[in-house]
TrEMBL record:
It comes from Streptomyces lacrimifluminis. The keyword Membrane applies. This is NADH-quinone oxidoreductase subunit I. It holds the Pfam family Fer4_7. GO terms for biological process: aerobic respiration. Its cofactor is [4Fe-4S] cluster. The lineage of its organism: Bacteria, Bacillati, Actinomycetota, Actinomycetes, Kitasatosporales. Its EC number is 7.1.1.-. It comes from the Bacteria. Belongs to the complex I 23 kDa subunit family. The gene is nuoI1. InterPro entries: 4Fe4S_Fe-S-bd (IPR017896), 4Fe4S_Fe_S_CS (IPR017900), NADH_quinone_OxRdtase_chainI (IPR010226).
C-alpha cells in the first residue's frame, strides 16, 4: 500500500502560487532577448568558422588541387569523392603532374569537422564562412568541383592554361608566381568536351 505524502510545511498558501508564477514571467519580460531574427538578420560568423568548402587557385588562375585524394582518405564521414587525372601541356589545370578532374563533397554526409583541410598538402581545400547549405534534395547536396572552385580574382585566367613561363611547379609553392604571365590565354578543355574548331579558343 502506497505511503501518504508527508507534510513538509513549506507549501505556500493557495492564493500565493499564481503570484509566484507570474513573478517568473515578469522577470523574464525584462531580460535581454536572446532570440535571433534569422534569416531576416544574418549573424556574423567567427573568422575561423567551419562552413562550405572552397577549392583554391594559384594567383595566375591554375588550380591548387593535385588530385591526391588525401582529403577523401582523411574524411571520417566518407563525404569526399576525387578522381585525379594527368595534366598535359595542351590542357593544364594545375602546375604539377596531376589535377583533380572530378571533385565532389556530399553535404548530406559532411559534419564540417575540417579534417580534410588539415590533410590537404597544397592548401587547395579550405573552408568558407557560408553555412546556408540546407536543401530539400539529396542530389543538390552533392557539390561538384565547378561549385566548389574559387572564382577568378583580377588578373587570373581560368584553367586550363599553360604554366607561367620559365617556372616549374615548385616555384608556385615558393610564391614566385604572383599573377598570370602577360598573354596567358585559356586552353581548350578537350577532356571536358570542348571543340577547338567550333569554339576557336586555343593557347
Ligand atoms: S569537413 Fe570533415 S566531414 Fe566534411 S568533408 Fe571534410 S573531413 Fe569530411
Ligand atoms: S583538395 Fe587537397 S587533399 Fe584533396 S585531392 Fe586536392 S590536393 Fe589532394
Amino acid at each position: 500500500m502506497a505511503e501518504e505524502p508527508k507534510e513538509t510545511g513549506q507549501t505556500k498558501p493557495g492564493f500565493q502560487n499564481p503570484v509566484a508564477g507570474f513573478g517568473v514571467t515578469f522577470k523574464a519580460m525584462f531580460k535581454k532577448r536572446l532570440t535571433e531574427q534569422y534569416p531576416e538578420q544574418q549573424k556574423t560568423t567567427a573568422p575561423r568558422f567551419h562552413g562550405r568548402h572552397q577549392l583554391n587557385r594559384h594567383p595566375d588562375g591554375l588550380e591548387k588541387c593535385v588530385g591526391c585524394e588525401l582529403c577523401a582518405w582523411a574524411c571520417p564521414a566518407d563525404a569526399i569523392y576525387v578522381e585525379g587525372a594527368d595534366n598535359t601541356d595542351e590542357e593544364r589545370y594545375s602546375p604539377g603532374e596531376r589535377y583533380g578532374a572530378v571533385y565532389q563533397i556530399n553535404y548530406a554526409r559532411c559534419i564540417l569537422c575540417g579534417l580534410c583541410i588539415e590533410a590537404c598538402p597544397t592548401r587547395a581545400l579550405t573552408m568558407t564562412n557560408e553555412f546556408e547549405l540546407a536543401d530539400s534534395s539529396r542530389a543538390n547536396l552533392i557539390y561538384t568541383k565547378e561549385q566548389l572552385l574559387a572564382g577568378l580574382d583580377e588578373g587570373m585566367v581560368d584553367s586550363p592554361h599553360s604554366i607561367f613561363p620559365g617556372t616549374d611547379e615548385q616555384d608556385y609553392y615558393r610564391g614566385l608566381v604572383t599573377e598570370a604571365a602577360p598573354g596567358t590565354v585559356r586552353q581548350v578543355a578537350v577532356s571536358k568536351g570542348e571543340k577547338p574548331e567550333e569554339e576557336g579558343v586555343g593557347a
